[in-house]
Target: Lysophospholipase
Amino acid sequence: MIIKDLEPFLSPEWGKTSAGFVTTQFGAALDFEVHGARELIFNFESNYLNIVVIWSANNGIWQETSIKNNALKIAVSDGQYSILIKSIDGNQMALWLNPITVVSLEVDEGDVLPVITDAKYVTFIGDSITAGEEMDGLNHHPELSYPKLIAEALDRPLARIGYGGTGLTPSAPFQEPTAVEALWHVAPNIERHRVLSDLVIVNYGTNDLNYGATEQDFCFGLRVYLLELIKRFHDAKIVLLVPFNGAFKNVFEQEIQRFDRFVLVDTSPWQISQRQVHPTIAEHARVAQLLLGGLS
Model:
């Protein structure tokens, strides 16, 4: 078996450490092209029995697999492949505190090459909705979420910063990571890899409203966060979504007047997730369609 450098295949949701490459993100990806190889072995730091991994060849059907004996083995043929971290038992804060670490890639023969593109990344930021959680009952589907669908429609690589339970105020149930910390770190004290992104789409506010934040609370949190977004993505077009439940629409409209950098999209008339917090698979598809129309 031949040891390959993993770094060229990793999406921006992975960070580099002395132990390997770590992620805390549902939807974190490894993308590559296979030439002449028949089996790939991804070696992990632990067995991660509670993690669901999916893979797809040549944009085909997603297939579930598992990590056994600290390794993920996939039989391959020539073509383009994508592997995603789909879900874990528990919630995303548990994943933040216990990151997944991939150590190495072994190839039996032939070669594995990175997917080359000159396109700039489209970056999506938000909570569990952005992460693609609970789209099918209790199941997560980052591969079918609206960030993934929009990136595919635009033919752009995807960068995702989405953590369940988070928000812009202390009312949000999960404060690890905070929204600001997630912009800069991919795991505790591990820097997030920076990529060139000229389009950033942000969806926060649902958890803040659902857990009791006042307009004053959200106004303060949003004001601080907008400054952090400008610092992090100073050359990008930044699109803010009014949450699907219409949360804090007036606050968004008020606060963006302080800047000339933000575009606000009111999603409340779309009637997404009227009966539940998390959009369904069909609703994610509709969000993608409607938002693509609003971006043109």
Remarks:
- The first helix runs from residue 92 to 97.
- The chain has a mean pLDDT of 94.
- The CA atoms of residues 168 and 179 lie 6 Å apart.
- DSSP finds eight helices and 18 strands in the chain.
